[in-house]
Amino acid sequence: MTSLHLNNITWSPLGHGHCHHQFQLRDASLHVAAGEFVGLIGPNGSGKTSLLRCAWRFSKPQSGEVRLEHHNVWKQSSRWCAQRIAVVLQEFPEAFGLTVDEVVAMGRTPHKGLFDGDSLEDRHLVTQTLESVGLKGFEDHAFSTLSGGEKQRVILARALAQQPQLLILDEPTNHLDPRYQLELLRLVKRLQIGTLASIHDLNLAAAFCDRLYVINHGRIVASGTPKDVLNAALLRNVFGVDALIDEHPLHGYPRITWITQP
């Protein structure tokens, strides 16, 4: 089991001091324990995706450290990281005519040599992961013909086929209807893999995350359990909206009702 540690991450797209503060990370630190589901929440433009990109070895921080267990991620090869970290992004890849099972099989690439074909174990894993995301029978469908929600589940299946030690999800429920939002997050939770996810819907974050980090203008401004973090004062300060916070009547986690003027 593997933990993730981001320590004092500073990053901006144009180097130090050359960008608007909204798009600069400043001394951002967080950790994900082995098997823990951690949510990253904050308004649009607050730095959620930028911080995730530093974590999966896409955007190199100007300062600070990203560690997977005891290893500095930025001192390892991209292949080393791909064998251990799987990523589900908001955007869909160009599939260039690939079928669903071919897209999912790409998750096995980091574990194979350059000229290795798919083994029996690889093919079994592809079938297994597609079944786990509710897409059994879709193997031969062209990826490009799928709905947004179906594509999102295929990309999750590809990530699971990597057999990662850490899962990073960037707004994983964006393209999904309520049923599949809940099913995807339940599935991720059941995996008991360390997971860091940016989540737009705060009620979903409250329901599924063990802990939350709140990011605003590139800084982590709060962290803790959903009950610790999701209070009316913080939501007003960070999101600029008043909210009523009570307990979910069945499960006891915080429930947020935004207060809007008619």
Would you mind describing this structure in some detail?
The chain has 262 residues and is α/β, with parallel strands linked by helices. The protein has one domain (4-258): P-loop containing nucleotide triphosphate hydrolases (Rossmann fold), CATH 3.40.50. The protein is built from nine helices and twelve strands. Strands 6-7-8-3-9-10 form a six-stranded mixed sheet, with helices on both faces. β11 and β12 form a beta hairpin. The longest helix has 14 residues, at 148-161. The termini are far apart.
Strand order of the largest sheet: 6-7-8-3-9-10
State the name of the first-level CATH class: Alpha Beta
End-to-end Cα distance, whole Å, is 49 Å
Largest sheet: 6 strands, mixed
Give the SSE string.
EEEHEEHEHHHEHEHEEHHEE
Number of helices: 9
The rounded Rg comes to 19 Å
CATH superfamily: P-loop containing nucleotide triphosphate hydrolases
The second-level CATH architecture is: 3-Layer(aba) Sandwich
Stated plainly, the CATH topology is called Rossmann fold
Integer count of domains:
1
In one word, what is the shape?
globular
GO molecular function: ATP binding; ATP hydrolysis activity
Organism: Pseudomonas moorei
InterPro entries: AAA+_ATPase, ABC_transporter-like_ATP-bd, ABC_transporter-like_CS, P-loop_NTPase
Family: Belongs to the ABC transporter superfamily.
